[in-house]
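Continuing the batch. This is chain 6 of the set; chains 1 through 5 are on the previous pages. Same settings as before, nothing changed between runs. Recording input and output for traceability.
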Amino acid sequence: MLPIDRYYNMAIAGPPAFPVIREVPPYTDPSAGDIIIRTADGVDFHVSRRRLAVLSSRLECLLPSTAVSDPKFKPSINVSELSAVWEKFLRVCLVDEEWPYSLDDVSSLVEIGLKYGIPAIATRVRYALVEPTALETEPCRVFLMASAYGLPDVAQIAARRTLRLQAIDHGAFDALKDVSGLDYLKLLQYRSRCGEVARSVVSAPQQDGNVFHLPGWIAERPQLWSMLAVTCTGRCASDTRTVAVTEVEGKPATVYVSVRNSWIAYLDALGKTLERRPWGPCALEPELLEPVIAPAATACPACAKCIFRNAMAFAKTVEARIEQAVAEVHLTA
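Output for chain 6:
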């Protein structure tokens, strides 16, 4: 079993370079193996009885028990699934390759595994659940499948990916019948806790009279609050608020600076957004940053030179802080 950090790295690094297998799989060669698995559409797969016994005692029990004297005769097992499914299933079980299976494939493979007493098949194809395309397009489905198949580390990765969505959304799929209401509840609770944690990142202490406070991690770092402060005396200075900050990082001395009201509004609006969608990149959304950048860029020639640079640098720092905080939240057992 691979550690969770490898799966997460796979999920964020982009699609893996799946091998291209050009040779004919051994189970399609009539001269190979000593038994036949015959599918519902009449396709024969030739497999070693010894390997089949290791793979599944339940499948081996389906073989006829009567001995046959003809050494060229191969006993057969008739299965109810189609050859397209069994070809993939045998490739997973008998060929040591990570084939690019879809989520539909994974559902079919696990169903066969459970039917014939090979529950470990879910672990074997877990890599397909953390393939980036699946996580980006159907994170809710991946979460529910991982929960149904007993893959908690994959479920955690997928749950994290659902945070970018406004709401939980998925279509019908085979594994849905194996998902419990508790799995849904875990995901809802996880998203709720992430929303609380994310909002706390941009929430400030209560206003003290006419003095406003920034979130502590911002107010205590001059390199951050200085991006928000207004130092010019032009039109920008008229739309500000007095804020208490720390003059030197690590020291208790407090000073008061003027911060654009648009930044205060930005933090408030971002907090409300994060409650519903606790995803770090929300900090960079244009509809939140435009009210900060546009007025300063048009009202003051001095601020116009630095507002975009400062706004993007600050928003990216906020994004990283949100992601760091949310990463500490885990699904309940």
